[in-house]
Each structure stands twice: as structure tokens, then as C-alpha cells.
Specification:
It is a single chain. The chain has a single domain, classed as Aldolase class I (TIM Barrel), CATH 3.20.20.70. Strands 1-2-3-4-5-6-7-8 form an 8-stranded parallel β-barrel, surrounded by 6 helices. The chain is built from 11 helices and 8 strands. The longest helix has 16 residues. Bound molecules: phosphoenolpyruvate. The site of phosphoenolpyruvate has 13 residues, from strand 8.
Length: about 250
């Protein structure tokens, strides 16, 4: 039986004081519930100090595909490990669309993360134009195939996939539970065709305007195994309620 996992993506939000307040609210409220917060790089040490020994893991939102060297401004997977990270988001749609990350680059980042022992949270999802032109499954399949081709299907046993329809991210528009479930089932089926065991164990999160108010019905879907939460992960009560809904 898969365990549900909720991860927060703080994006480029927060400061020392706000983070301290948020983390100290999450820690007791989520005692015993596995959850993840993916924080900006400068706050990894703060997350580590605040969350060590708790059931909440922490991670980053991006990682270099390179191991080390003259790559100004980049952060390696080994550096993330130094700060106790267990997870890193790769291929978030904002990285793909705003910073030109290709499927191949995302696959390289995924492999760099795994090579260092981190669990990548691999984001896939279609834009509104892609959904409206009926190519949702083709887009998601292409994004997954790039990773499977580079790293092999077995690598997904050490990864989390997040289905995030781009039109639902930060827009207040959530995919209906049925729309999300259909794509989650497609993802699992596609992987099952290659390796049924990997597909069965794979945690597939849904992301896109998840809130306390809609979390329970999304999490009730058979192939939705948790969530990747943006805006609502910055509001303690919201994030706590989402994690509790997933844990039920
Ligand atoms: C995200 O950034 O991954 C996300 C899902 O954002 P939001 O929850 O704000 O839509």
C-alpha cells in the first residue's frame, strides 16, 4: 500500500522570521505525519535546524545537473545533502517555462539528484493550450519518457512524480478530482506497462491550487498519493490541514 506524501514548495517566498514562525507551527501539528518542505537555498540550514528529528523532511526546489566545478550560481546535489535534504523538486513548470529547462536537462538533474542519494520530485504537466488541443497525455508521456530513457524505469522506485497541470498552478483553478485522477491513472498505467512493481509503489502527487478545502476529495482518488503544494504551503493552518487530509 502506497503512503501518501505532501510536499510544500515555498518558491521564492519567506524570510528568516516568517520561516521560523511557519516551521514552529508545522512541527508539533504534523508530529508523526510524514511531510516535506522545499525551501529556498539560503534557508536550508534554518529548515535543518528547525526540523531535525521531526517527521517533516526538507529539500530544495532545484539542483544543478553538474556535480561540481565552474558553474557560477549553481547548487549541486552534494551541497543539498550537506544540509540534510532528502528531496529536491526537478522540472517544475516554472523552471521549464521561465528558465528554459528542457526535458533532457530535467532528466540530467533527476539523475544528479539520485546519484547523490536525494529523492527527486519530478514535475510533469500540460499547459492550458496543450489540454485544449487534446495532447495532455502526449505531453506528460514525453516528459516521463525523457527521464525513463536517461535513467531507466527502475529509477522511479527512488523518485516521486508530481502531476501539475500548468493551468492550475497558482491560478486558483484546480483540476477536478476526476480530471486529475485520469492523468494519474495514465501515468501509472504507462509505467506499469514497463514495470508493474515500480508503478504500483510510485507516489504520484497532484499539484495545482490544492487547498485545505479541496484536499480531501483529491486525496480520495485511487491514484493520487499526496500533493505538491505551492501557495497554501506558506499558510500554516492550510498546509497542516492538507497534510492531515492526506494522512487520513
Ligand atoms: C506549485 O508551485 O507546485 C503549485 C502547485 O502551486 P500552487 O499550489 O500555488 O498552485
Amino acid at each position: 500500500m502506497r503512503k501518501k506524501l505532501v510536499a510544500g514548495n515555498w518558491k521564492m517566498h519567506g524570510n528568516l522570521a516568517e520561516n521560523a514562525a511557519l516551521l514552529s507551527a508545522l512541527k508539533p501539528a504534523l508530529a508523526g505525519i510524514e511531510a516535506v518542505v522545499c525551501v529556498p537555498f539560503p534557508y536550508l540550514a534554518q529548515a535543518q535546524a528547525a526540523l531535525a528529528g521531526s517527521s517533516i523532511a526538507w529539500g530544495a526546489q532545484n539542483v544543478s545537473e553538474q556535480a561540481k566545478g565552474a558553474f557560477t550560481g549553481e547548487v549541486s546535489a552534494a551541497m543539498l545533502l550537506d544540509f540534510g535534504c532528502r528531496y529536491v523538486i526537478v522540472g517544475h513548470s516554472e523552471r521549464r517555462s521561465l528558465y528554459g529547462e528542457t526535458d533532457e536537462l530535467v532528466a540530467s538533474k533527476y539523475m544528479a539528484a539520485q546519484a547523490a542519494g536525494l529523492t527527486p520530485i519530478l514535475c510533469v504537466g500540460e499547459s492550458l493550450a496543450e489540454r485544449e488541443s487534446g495532447v495532455t497525455e502526449a505531453v506528460v508521456a514525453r516528459q516521463l519518457d525523457a527521464v525513463i530513457k536517461a535513467a531507466g524505469v527502475a529509477s522511479l522506485a527512488r523518485a516521486v512524480v508530481a502531476y501539475e497541470p500548468v493551468w492550475a498552478i497558482g491560478t486558483g483553478k484546480t483540476a477536478t478530482p476526476e480530471q486529475a485522477q485520469a492523468v494519474h491513472a495514465f501515468i501509472r498505467g504507462k509505467i506499469a506497462a514497463l514495470d508493474a512493481g515500480v508503478a504500483d509503489g510510485l507516489v504520484i502527487q497532484y499539484g495545482g491550487s490544492v487547498k485545505a478545502a479541496n484536499a480531501a476529495e483529491l486525496m480520495a482518488q485511487p491514484d493520487i498519493d499526496g500533493g505538491l503544494i505551492g501557495g497554501a504551503s506558506l499558510v500554516a493552518d492550510e498546509f497542516i490541514a492538507i497534510c492531515q487530509a492526506a494522512a487520513k
